[in-house]
Predict the structure.
Amino acid sequence: MKSDQLKTALSIVRERIATAKRQATHRGFIDYRGCLRVCHEFIAILDDAAQAAESGDWIHAYSISALVLVNCARLVGSADDSAGGINDTRRDVVRVLESTCAGVAYGSTDAEVIFLQALKDSQNKAFDRCDEFAYDLLLPIAILATANNVNKLYDVLDIFAARLTSQAYTSWYHEQDRLIRLSAITAVEGSQAAEQYIAANLAYDGIRRIAIRHAVENGNFNLAEQLCIDKIATITYGYHWTRAWYNLLFDVYVKFGDQEKQTALAEDLLYNQRDDHYYAILKALLMEKGVWNTRYSNILDRLAQCLPYNSYMYILSQENERARLLGELKLHPASVFTYGSQLSAHYPSDVYSLCLAEIRKQAAEANNRDLYKHVCSNIKLLVEFGGKSEADVVIAELKSRYPRRPAMLEELDILAMKLVKQRK
């Protein structure tokens, strides 16, 4: 039974929640700003739950967290959550629950109370429309399962599975089910049984990541590597879908100190997958090996052929490769306003010429005040690059060329006056 003190605390929390919702509700609906205000109140309440956990009041911390989660679920469909406040609150709930379940003594009376109450709370009708909230509740508490009560958890998971199978029981729900069972198996049956369960459920990404982590912790490099490679081989949707697994594979190589494989993978991802994130990584690896200077020019040549021009130009800018960067600007002149300040001191005539050509092109295509302002902002950049006289010329030219665009003329006059004041 709940203590009178806990009942009082929960009554206060319920009143805070009800007040927040009432103040945010207009004509039966909670709008964007109102949802944010309610979620901010939820998070403030969770701060109190976190303090309860820190002081060892485990049941209090759990009860408040579960109450907030239930009310988050009730917000779904009755509030505009386009700002993501509900998901932010869910993450905070999980954080407090994890802290609570990690802190309470395993097998204690408090742990038993929390575990059984969570099984009951997970079947709250508020979760009927958003089952993922129920899994948020069950995953943290699974570590509290014991031989005497674990089957009650499995029964609840079976109920969820039976209900969701008749709907849209997606792979996400299957994975959450497996992760909860794995946590319970680890707590009740030990690591050997857990490893067997992991091996049988590698089809689920969350389980596979755990397997990779365990392999790394146990010093099994070959297994960790193979688990990553096997997953990558099953994905046929392109690099976007495999990137996280490539990153994980690279991390495996880092943890085992295999610089050769780090270098080979970094080059593969940079050249073949066009992932410019690995440029700095490859550079650091080759510098450590002492071969960066001899390979540098060839690497830039290869990047010119395989990277998107904007990524390649960014690298050239970072390396201060002015001549190469100018050559790219001539092929992609719209980028002159991004890199003009870096090049204008060394190639003023080229930069000014590219700026003027782009300004004229943009002015010809502009047909509203926002675009006229954009043209003027680029003229200001031309001035910042040192092309003051060129700016005066193009302003006069545009005013003469487009006399029937009063908004453009107005913006050009405003710019001209600002430039005059700057020169005084």
The chain is about 75% helix and 0% strand. The mean pLDDT is 95.
